[in-house]
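Title: Comparing notes on inverse folding

I've been comparing how different people in this forum approach sequence design from structure. To keep things fair, I'm posting one structure and asking everyone to reply with a full sequence. Here's the target:
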């Protein structure tokens, strides 16, 4: 995107990918790294405090914790993995949902104002080193090595010649593409949403301070769109955390299922 000239000597260069490369704060540690650690502290502290003194009639904190737990347990794990196998995976699903949600919501919280998963490395690491090993491990454990490979790559009922094309595609999807698309989905949503907010916010500031004539009042419109998009982005952040947890649970359920 090129620079926009509104007055002599004043140009507006819209935000781009370079604005996501934050400088080191100390010893190579960047803001997104700190936010990742902070999210773990926040989640752990919340659940520990909310469940410290459980009551029959829950207080606000206990109510929220129980709601999130029930949502992860019954709305995601049970639905995607199945009532027979879901219980051992409740902690994982709850952690994935909470972790992705908090890191996404950082993008609209003042001071933080950066969705951690807008850096591809973080969702990719979560997908490749947590979700990917888990669902393949449980698949191999249940079906055996050869049995799981057959289960994952040879759908029953297809004509014999079709397997020449279908089996490589299934292998590519299950063992290569699934973890990549899981990571890219949340990364793309967080990157694009934060970039849109940056564009409207920075453009509003530029128009107010540097534009003249009819351009200056447009700054109000730009900021109004920034506020509107903040609410839209908040919804997307929640949805993407849900989608990440649902797909992770779905992969586990598919690996455990008796049928393809």
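Reply #1:
Here's my take.
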């Amino acid at each position: 995107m090129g620079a926009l000239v509104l007055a002599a000597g004043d140009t507006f260069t819209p935000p781009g990918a370079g604005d996501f490369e934050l400088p080191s704060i100390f010893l190579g540690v960047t803001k997104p790294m700190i936010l990742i650690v902070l999210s773990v502290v926040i989640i752990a502290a919340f659940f520990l405090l909310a469940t410290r003194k459980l009551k029959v009639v829950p207080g606000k904190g206990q109510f929220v914790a129980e709601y999130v737990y029930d949502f992860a347990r019954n709305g995601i794990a049970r639905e995607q993995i199945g009532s027979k196998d879901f219980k051992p995976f409740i902690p994982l699903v709850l952690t994935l949902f909470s972790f992705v949600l908090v890191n996404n919501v950082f993008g609209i919280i003042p001071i933080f104002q950066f969705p951690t998963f807008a850096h591809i490395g973080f969702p990719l690491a979560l997908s490749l080193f947590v979700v990917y090993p888990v669902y393949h491990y449980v698949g191999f454990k249940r079906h055996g090595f050869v049995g799981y490979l057959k289960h994952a790559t040879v759908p029953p009922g297809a004509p014999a010649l079709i397997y020449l094309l279908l089996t490589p595609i299934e292998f590519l999807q299950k063992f290569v593409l699934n973890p990549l698309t899981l990571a890219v989905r949340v990364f793309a949503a967080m990157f694009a949403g934060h970039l849109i907010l940056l564009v409207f916010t920075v453009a509003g500031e530029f128009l107010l301070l540097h534009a003249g004539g009819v351009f200056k009042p447009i700054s109000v419109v730009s900021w109004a769109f920034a506020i509107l998009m903040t609410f839209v982005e908040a919804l997307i952040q929640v949805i993407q955390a849900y989608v990440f947890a649902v797909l992770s649970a779905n992969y586990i359920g598919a690996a455990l299922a008796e049928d393809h």
